[in-house]
Amino acid sequence: MKGGIPMQIRKMLAAFISFMMIYPVVSVSAFAVDETQIVVSPAYEYAAKTENYLTITSSTADCKSLCNGMAGVTQITVEHTLEKHWGLWIWNEVDGASWTKTVDTRAISLVNTKSGLDSGTYRLKSVFTLTNSSGKSETITIYSEEETI
């Protein structure tokens, strides 16, 4: 053998590389799932449920944000903001359409209306901050379905 890698090591190296390329494909388990039973929901540390709703009738938006905290939550703050689609991925806050509320309980509901809207596409952004009895907090941002007028 003249300087270089011995044939036996080359074969072992080739086998190892082949195995590493094939392993991810053959290691995936196959299984069937009944799609009607799949429920995907984010796992939050302190929030049991967060929801928001936007309904626009004529040129008036009805904005609603709801949150239920888990045991140990002592305070919830919600700020919800009506946003208008400007273009591409840009959403701008609608003037005079941002509201905030804080409660010292495990549940919060904030309902507001904004009238005089121009035509366009809108959504409601809700930011919830939940604080537990230890002073630790979690902030969650959700967006409503888009509404167009």
Description:
- Strands 3, 4, 6, 7 and 8 form a five-stranded antiparallel sheet that branches. This protein has a three-stranded antiparallel sheet with strand order 1-2-5, with no helix packed on it.
- It has one helix at residues 7-26; strands at residues 47-57, 60-69, 73-87, 90-103, 107-114, 121-132, 137-143, 147-148.
- A hairpin with a 2-residue loop joins β3 (73-87) and β4.
- The longest helix has 20 residues, at 7-26.
- It has 149 residues and is mainly β.
- Mean pLDDT is 87; it is low at 26-31.
- The chain is 13% helix and 53% strand.
Main sheet record: 5 strands, antiparallel
Share of β-strand residues: over 45%
The percent of residues in helical segments reads: 10-25%
Counting H and I runs of at least 4 residues, what is the number of helices? Answer: 1
DSSP strand count: 8
Q: How many angstroms separate the termini?
A: 80 Å
| SSE series | HEEEEEEEE
Shape verdict: elongated
Average the pLDDT over all residues and give the rounded result: 87
Uncertain regions spanning at least 5 consecutive residues = 26-31
* CA radius of gyration: 26 Å
Structural class: mainly beta
Keywords:
149 residues, mainly beta, five-stranded antiparallel beta sheet, three-stranded antiparallel beta sheet, 1 helix, 8 strands
Would you kindly provide a brief summary of this structure?
With 149 residues, the protein is mainly beta. It is built from one helix and eight strands, in the order H-E-E-E-E-E-E-E-E.
What's the SSE blueprint?
Elements lengths: L6 H20 L20 E11 L2 E10 L3 E15 L2 E14 L3 E8 L6 E12 L4 E7 L3 E2 L1
Antiparallel strand pairs: 1-2, 2-5, 3-4, 3-6, 6-7, 6-8
